[in-house]
Design brief:
The protein is of the alpha+beta class and 308 residues long. It has helices at 2-5, 126-138, 142-204, 210-250, 256-303, and strands at 13-17, 29-32, 36-40, 47-48, 61-66, 69-74, 81-83, 86-88, 92-94, 99-102, 108-112. It folds into two domains: 2-124, Tumour Suppressor Smad4 (Sandwich); 148-287, Methane Monooxygenase Hydroxylase, Chain G, domain 1, CATH 1.20.58.
């Protein structure tokens, strides 16, 4: 920021591009007002070159302020940096008029320090100075700035979005549970009707063969087991629905329809429990009646005279 608002006494330098490239024309003078820039093909580099320069590394070299002057630092481990035609292995002080080349066949730049008052950053107009600052100081952090901006947007809108999604989730869960309740109620009704029919069929088979009675009884026992499984499922569903209603209520959702549906399920469970007890009693009465009839037949057979 000092390069923009505290420019008095601060110097800048110029990179004179001597090689035509996608981002810089030959003869272009690029003013550098910040203390450090990187040169290379990476999009974060302040002095960037295009992909046609295959021997230029992503982060090839850096020019850094060094006291009252500047120095160039080679960053690439594979492609050399040249100053005045000589490869450098370590940081090297730059002098006015030096030439910098990135790799032996890479782009060539002249390093120029303006003279007199024109060498001061303050000699550059504020509008241009702000533009240079944006390009040179903010460019390396462009991705981070965008990331922070996105995070801020998400932070502002995230809670609202989360509440909307959570509300829809609660509503969807309640609707799913209500549909499951309707299904289990229908299944309980059909099970009840089947057990009633099989009980009547069992009564009507009092005088049928033992095999026929056994088949009816087997079907009845299976139907009763299925009914018991349905009642257990209904009980589990009732518990799950209670939990879903509580969560939805805490979230401020409309739970009246769900409450009505669970009351309906509770009534159905009570009705089926009562019907189950009644059916068990009727089955016992049928068994006792069958035993009494069997005893009478046996006594009659014993009382018949032996005709032999």
């Amino acid at each position: 920021m000092a390069a923009v608002f505290n420019a008095s006494g601060r110097q800048y330098y110029i990179l004179e591009h001597k090689t035509e490239s996608l981002y810089h024309h030959a003869g272009e003078s690029q003013k550098i007002i910040v203390d450090q820039v990187e040169l290379g093909r990476d999009s974060a580099c302040q002095v960037r070159f295009d992909e046609s320069f295959e021997t230029v590394s992503r982060r090839h070299a850096a020019i850094v302020k060094d006291g009252e002057g500047w120095k160039v630092i080679p960053l690439s481990q594979t492609n050399p940096t040249y100053v005045n035609g000589q490869p450098i292995m370590a940081e090297t002080k730059l002098n006015n008029g030096d030439e910098i080349r990135l790799s032996s066949k890479g782009p060539l730049m002249g390093f120029i320090i303006p003279q007199g008052k024109q060498s001061l950053v303050s000699s550059i107009g504020m509008t241009e100075r702000l533009s240079l600052f944006r390009q040179q100081a903010l460019r390396p952090y462009k991705r981070a700035i965008w990331t922070l901006a996105i995070i801020l947007i998400l932070a502002v809108g995230g809670l609202i979005t989360w509440n909307i999604l959570q509300g829809k989730k609660f509503d969807r869960e309640l609707l799913e549970k209500q549909a499951q309740i309707e299904e289990v109620q229908q299944n309980l009704t059909e099970s009840d009707e089947l057990i009633d029919a099989l009980n009547k069929e069992l009564v009507n088979t009092q005088h049928a063969s033992a095999a026929e009675r056994a088949r009816v009884r087997e079907r009845l026992e299976k139907a009763q087991k299925d009914r018991d499984d349905l009642l257990k499922r209904a009980g589990d569903l009732q518990y799950d629905m209670d939990q879903a209603i509580q969560a939805a209520d805490d979230a401020g959702r409309d739970i009246k329809a769900a409450q009505d549906k669970i009351k309906e399920l509770e009534g159905k469970i009570q009705e089926m429990d009562a019907k189950k007890q009644q059916q068990m009693k009727e089955a016992n009465d049928v068994n006792e009646e069958g035993k009494s009839l069997s005893d009478i037949i046996k006594r009659n057979q014993k009382s018949k005279p032996n005709l032999q």
